[in-house]
Write a structure and sequence with these properties.
275 residues; alpha/beta; five-stranded parallel beta sheet
């Protein structure tokens, strides 16, 4: 199944006999949740999911957005109406990072059919509703481990033996600036691949062939395993999603730079080159 869905296809599916569960994951880094925007207007039937409390555990040694507690995640998904036998569509405000995080977690925990609304809510021209949706409870039981996951040691190894992509902005990769974490730079051997290169000016993903060409130019040519990290496992999920659109499987290092940079024993590379 394609990892993304167009707004027109979603509108058609919502009007059909088996409409998908729709999750609204609007989010902002470092700020309060955006539930009030959801309550003002959202795609009909969509349920709000809070990235910071339901798609991640509290920040700590494992990074700013560690994997969520399985029971917390399961309860949030069931409350939103998620079941194994019903399609899921996820959207955010348009950047795609938060929606991709939800997409990745559902895939990692075994949901067989989840897609991201291409372009997010900004691409939606259909009707909206206000208030809070109250769906019937779902039956989803997470089974973690269905897609590849990296820890710090695995990311370090993959940077040497395969291809590890850094999804952050190029200036953070180089170490020119670091507005959030303890130190700037990148994991030695990682290749800079900012998420901004995955999308067009509209905010929608580039066509699959263009994404495949982009990632091939970075070294994802099918000859080695691919992994991705970012600041805290959110924009990195967007890169994994873009790779999926291009037909390239990739593992996510959820702890990412926010975990790596906390450990003073981990090496840090700076400058434009991987090493």
């Amino acid at each position: 199944m394609n990892a993304i869905i167009s707004a027109s296809r979603l509108a058609s599916d919502l009007a059909g006999p088996n409409p998908p569960v729709v999750l609204d994951v609007r989010w902002q880094l470092g700020g309060p949740n955006l539930r009030h925007f959801y309550e003002e207007a959202h795609i009909p039937g969509a349920v709000y999911v809070d990235l910071d409390t339901e798609l991640a555990a509290p920040a700590g040694a494992a990074g700013r957005h560690p994997l969520p507690d399985p029971e917390v995640f399961a309860a949030a998904m069931r409350a939103a109406g998620v079941s194994e036998d019903r399609d899921v569509v996820v959207y955010d405000g348009g950047l795609g990072w938060a929606a991709a995080r939800a997409w990745w977690l559902l895939r990692w925990t075994g949901h067989p059919s989840v897609r991201v609304l291409d372009g997010g809510l900004a691409a939606w021209s259909g009707p909206v509703e206000s208030g809070r949706a109250a769906p019937a409870a779902g039956t989803f039981v997470p089974a973690p481990g269905k897609v590849s996951l990296l820890d710090a040691d695995g990311a370090a190894s993959l940077a040497r033996t395969g291809l590890l992509l850094d999804a952050r902005a190029a200036e953070r990769y180089r170490g020119d600036v670091e507005p959030i974490d303890r130190v700037g730079g990148h994991i030695p051997g990682a290749v800079s691949a900012p998420t901004t290169g995955n999308v067009a000016e509209t905010g929608c993903f580039l066509p699959a062939a263009e994404l495949a060409d982009r990632f091939a130019s970075l070294g994802a040519d099918g000859s080695s395993e691919v992994g991705v990290y970012c600041g805290s496992g959110v924009s990195g999920a967007h890169e994994v999603l873009a790779l999926a659109v291009a037909g390239i499987p990739a593992a996510l290092y959820v702890g990412s730079w926010s975990e790596w940079s906390q450990d003073e024993g981990r090496p840090v590379a700076t400058g434009p080159d991987p090493q």
